[in-house]
């Protein structure tokens, strides 16, 4: 494996798109309601 995923995946690979979309999601409402007490989210 290359030391970086950037060297491994082509520039227009679907995985890059998925990562970018997830990174752009506004998850504040979900994170704010999660108590982190070990219960199912």
Helix content: 40-55%
Q: Total strand count, please? A: 0
Helices and strands, in order, run as HHH
Query: What gyration radius follows from the Cα positions, in whole Å?
Result: 16 Å
- Low-confidence parts, pLDDT < 50 over ≥5 residues? none
Distance between the termini: 34 Å
Q: What general form does the structure show?
A: elongated
Description:
By secondary structure, the protein is an all-alpha fold. It has one domain. 51% of the residues lie in helices and 0% in strands. The chain contains 3 helices and no strands. The protein has helices at residues 5-8, 14-24, 28-33. The mean pLDDT is 82.
Key traits:
41 residues; mainly alpha; 3 helices; 51% helix; 0% strand
Would you spell out the secondary-structure blueprint of this structure?
Elements: H1 5-8, H2 14-24, H3 28-33
């Amino acid at each position: 494996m290359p030391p970086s995923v950037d060297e491994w995946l082509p520039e227009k690979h679907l995985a890059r798109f998925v990562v970018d979309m997830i990174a752009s999601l506004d998850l504040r409402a979900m994170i704010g309601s999660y108590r982190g007490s070990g219960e199912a989210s």
